Amino acid sequence: MRRDTLSRRSVLGAAAGFTLASASAASVVGGAIQNEGGNVSRDTVVIREGTAEETTAYVVTADTEGPTALVVGGMHGNETAGYTAAGQIADWTIDAGTLVVIPEANAVAIEGGTRNDEEGNNLNRQFSQGETPGTELARDIWNVVSEYDPDIMIDLHESTGIYADDPMDGVGQAIFRSSGTEATNAAADAVDYINRDYIEDSNLAFQTGPFSLPGTDPSGLLAHKAARDLDADGFLVETLSTGVELQTRVQWHTAIVERLLEDELLLDDSGSGSTPDEPVDDEPAESESESEEPAESESESEEPAESEPESEEPAESESEPEEPVDDDADDEAEAASNEDGDEASDDGESAGNESPTAQIDVRPAWVNETALKPGQTITLDASGSSDPDGELVDYEWCIDKGASFDKTGETIEVTIGSPGEHPVTLRIVGDDGSTDTTQITLETNC
What we know:
By secondary structure, the protein is of the alpha/beta class. It has eight helices and 19 strands.
């Protein structure tokens, strides 16, 4: 069960009605539909109508004025819990203000079960601050977001690993937030709430972190742009995508969104059903290193160091671990592929699966990866990787420290452009969603 009613704490000055985005970007399908009590109207806005990227924004408007909240899922097509939860949130009823939900932002990637679209574009890297978004889909999504000008914006993602000291392991079980006292307090409150009422395994405890600073990686995220260009309270929620049932992950997402909107709009507790029906065993099915408890988790949820109100972005990074550079994780370094394996864990069949093994070979074989020359090109080959009881469905590469997993393929070519050490990480994904990573370091000798 879930909470399905939002009520107003106070009127924040946001108008309940807005003019829809221009017809070139979006169009309304159907008219407003009153709910049984006559309290809300429901509209739909079609984005990229008539194209393969066509998707829908759902707009719920209450009779009473109040703030505007916007929730997005499916920026990455392989992060199933995020877009599933957003689809449920689109059906919520509100008592005040406006709720806008885009459940399946990246329809092509969702259809293919991939992180990026068919052209390899990462949708959540197209929203540079102060600039026009980079693709037609991103521009049309931004037209809707900017038209409704939300007071609070929440983007739902998943990661194959837990957010800890090393973002290469993933960024799951975290709420990343924009600067400012309200966003900081809301994220901390949501973490306390979800850990207290929904998390039984301390290894799966949520923590918070600030958005990465302007001009640093990861950049081009929708939540960042909404916070910095529209002055919204921005949040990016990451749940662990492996070893936990889809139903549980969706429940985490919806509970966190409820709490964040409650902090912003004071949700009505009546009939919310926000408490889990039964305690859930969230122990990951596979005893991977991803399930180790993050070192900062206890101090993060309290965020004691951020006692002064934040008015500038730069103040965030001193008291909390800054948003990792490997997004999707998603994102905040949003994690890499988990393909259709999200659903595979629901029936328990994946519990006995053997993990895949990642392997990197350098081609030509006679090349010494620790004695390269600047400008030299080599081939990195992942064909030696294996999955004992399944197939490998994705090969993702992160080139150099601080970069993201933005290259894919069983083999890639790498050109060393400067002297020094250049770490290269390979992450492979099995057809059941299980993953493995390995790393080599390329070095130049001059």
